[in-house]
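Standup notes
- DV: blocked on the single-chain target, sequence here:
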Amino acid sequence: MRERLLGGILLVAALLPALDARSQSSDQRKLSYGRHLAQECTTCHRIDGKDNGIPSIVGQDPVHFAQTIGYYKSGARDNQVMVSVAQSLDDEQVAALAAYYASLPKVTR
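- DV (later): unblocked, structure below
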């Protein structure tokens, strides 16, 4: 019994680096997908983080970003353009955009 337990622990320990690499690869794919999707966002939201009357989303907390998109999607926030954009996004796209914008350095004024 003890040998089986030790064997199981050794197997898990041997697989951890591969699982970590897979997770990093998944994170990189999510960021890449978010970068791709953000091309539409930069029509209004500046990528340099400057606020030109439209709020900056650069460096935004991913949970806050997703919640905000949810408010537009549900109609709790009213902006015709953002409601339309939010309703066109699925959960995977929102998560990718949130991760991408969170990865960008927040601009300090």
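- Follow-up: DSSP finds four helices and no strands in the chain.
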